[in-house]
Amino acid sequence: MELVVDIQKRLPNFTLEVAFSTHGEPLGLLGSSGSGKSMILRCIAGIETPTQGIIALNGRVLYDSKRGIHLPSCDRRVGYLFQHYALFPHLTVAQNIAYGLRGQSKAAIARQVAQQLRQVQLVGYGDRYPHQLSGGQQQRVALARALAPNPEILLLDEPFSALDAHLRSELEKQLLKTLAHYPGLTLFVSHNLEEAYRVCQRLLVLSNGRVVAEGPKQHIFDHPGTLAVAQLTGCKNLSTLERRGDHALIALDWGCTLQTLEPVQPTHTHVGIRAHRLTFPKQPTQPNTFPGWIAWISETPHRLSLYFKLGSPPADTDDYHLQAEVFKDKWAELKERPFPWFVHLDPSQLILLES
Description:
- The chain has 355 residues and is of the alpha+beta class.
- It contains 9 helices and 20 strands.
- The strands form 4 sheets. Strands 7-8-9-3-10-11 form a 6-stranded mixed beta sheet, with helices on both faces. Strands 2-1-4-5-6 form a 5-stranded antiparallel beta sheet, covered by helices on one side.
- Helix 3 (106-119) packs across helix 4.
């Protein structure tokens, strides 16, 4: 199994120019809105035509601008799950699933539809119409329709974005079970790092139509390399830096001098640390430990975001340097401490970045 993509496509605001391949494990396409993620899927599916380049799937050339090859969508063996389902409203659930199975016998189509209904837990829903289904049920029908023709690749375009939190979680579990038995390739488009992280083993990070990082998900998370990738992978604490030696720098936006484990190169322009990596020792016995005051607190059902000012008390809620995330059981231990707290930026957790 292999997908090879090397294409350019001129768009109104930028030129999409990407080259990558994938060989089996689900590949997540991560990037902000408008970065070109969905356009890549549309070019693979044959819905859009690149300006130039090549797309090959398992040795079959789907598109080659130099050789004049452009297979129609129906011949590409591609399953596409759209962001907003795109079910045919005038067709029943069974007819929607069977849509891509034309040319087979009625008995074969019926068997395949029944199998897909079982797989997405919608047995008994075949005669209903899309308007009679919930959003989650419609999404499951769309997944069954995409899988019914046994495609060689499954393209998932932000499949959970239109769902509430509970349905999103339920359908994500359904998708993971389905992908565990799916023999083909999978591309999963998302702008949500945690979602892409749970579904995919490898990530391709896009910014303005270019690939800015590619590799195993944990490696990209731990070593983003550039400011753009750090931002796209959710790093909330970033500062410009001034190099002060091989293992020392001034974090200009945080107003502190830091020791680093990784060598500071002349090309490094920023330093970052993930919000969950900040710790709060009782005494300032370790390097990179500073007095800190909370300027503002934001709460979710399970954890809190704490916004800290280092060095002196904050003037107002916008006067802070760093954001920390702690679970509520940890907050219960910390909240009675008098200020200033001690805020520790572990040298091994600092991320050095190029622009």
